[in-house]
Amino acid sequence: MNNSDLLKELRIDRSTPPPAPSRTGLWIGLGIAGAMVALALGVWAVLGRSDAIEVKTAEVTALGNAGGSASVLDATGYVVARRMATVSAKITGKVREVLIEEGQRVEAGQVMATLDPIDADAQRDLAASQLAAARSEIAAVQAQLKEAEANANRLSGLAQQQLVSKSQYDQAIAERDALRAGLQTAQRNAQVANDGLRIAAQGVDNTIVRAPFAGVVIAKAAQPGEIVSPLSAGGGFTRTGIGTIVDMDSLEVEVEVGEAFIGRVHPKMPVEATLNAYPDWKIPAEVIAIIPAADRGKATVKVRVALKQKDARIVPDMGVRVAFLEAARPATTVRPGVLAPAAAIVQREGKDIAFVVADGKAQQREVSLGRTLGEDREVLAGLAGGDTVVIDPPQKLADGARVQVAREESGDAANND
């Protein structure tokens, strides 16, 4: 074979198409590349976050503008009525009519119910008859006395002329005096009968049950046909009341304050009350009095708080939260600040500092502290309302360190349950 034949064998034959690539090999290559990318992302996720410190955080609360009042103590309690009464009849009797319903407003003296007055009416009629008889007796004695006085006067002149004996004259005088005494007795009997009639009339009036004061009916306890009594009689078949009314103008708040904090409370102290049913409604109030007695079992002291705002939404036994406020100070002397958890303040190199979380990093800030308010501290400078601070910052936490907010495991577990 010469050189020209060798060159022909080395020439590429372009008349035959090249073989198609294998699809199986292509998919295998793509799968390997995807697995490598996922592995790289997982390694980055683990190694990239390994330097983040897990911390717990809380939000800083603004105390308000200058010239306001700050809360020095919070407590919970209930709305109570100082004027509430279960109205009952003064006598035992059968209910004839009930004129009240729950939620109805009644005025002082308004009729709430009536009892069967048959017995009371009969007693009143008897007393009226006795009075009439006593008055008739008075008229008869008065007629006899008039005749006796005339006879005594006539015999007096005849006795002076010695036309009648002195014994006849003395007898006429005795009859006259006896009738005078009888008239006084009859008049007194008539007065007693009149008093008896008045008492009997009062008995009739006792069959009418009236409201002792203006208020709102919160319970209706009796129905027509039932027996009511001011005292429990006859077991469970006898009612002791017609209904219960509450004077809504006498509503106030009663809270229990721990003995350790009662020194912060004093009479006339401003208070802000918030009903559990209306959390966005702030009701101005003030301390009425501190009850001078402690509960040994709960180590608390009761405090009475007056509500300065009257509203139909406030009803007895409602739950309420109260904030005892310090007296408002002039704007020139009030220093604006925020309220932060005391656990967020630590000392580093003799300085009070707090760590604020922003963009996943901890920023160290030097703070100026004010008062201690329970588990919180007043921060006069260094923090602003809405800042997120680290609770119990670890010793290794430094300025600029990456942090990761810990999840609330207990809260998640409760939600899952």
UniProtKB/TrEMBL annotation:
Q: Which UniProt keywords apply?
A: Coiled coil, Membrane, Transmembrane, Transmembrane helix
Q: Which residues cross the membrane?
A: 26-47
Q: Domain (YknX-like C-terminal permuted SH3-like): give its ranges.
A: 341-405
The CusB-like beta-barrel domain, residue ranges: 253-325
Gene3D superfamilies xref list: 2.40.30.170, 2.40.420.20, 2.40.50.100, Helix hairpin bin
Multidrug resistance protein MdtA-like barrel-sandwich hybrid domain sequence ranges: 83-229
Alphabetical list of InterPro entries matching this protein? Beta-barrel_RND_2, MdtA-like_BSH, RND_pump_MFP, YknX-like_C
Coiled coil regions, renumbered to chain: 131-189
Question: SUPFAM superfamilies attached here?
Answer: HlyD-like secretion proteins (SSF111369)
Q: Which family does it belong to?
A: Belongs to the membrane fusion protein (MFP) (TC 8.A.1) family.
Q: What is this protein called?
A: Efflux RND transporter periplasmic adaptor subunit
Q: Which organism is it from?
A: Lysobacter yangpyeongensis
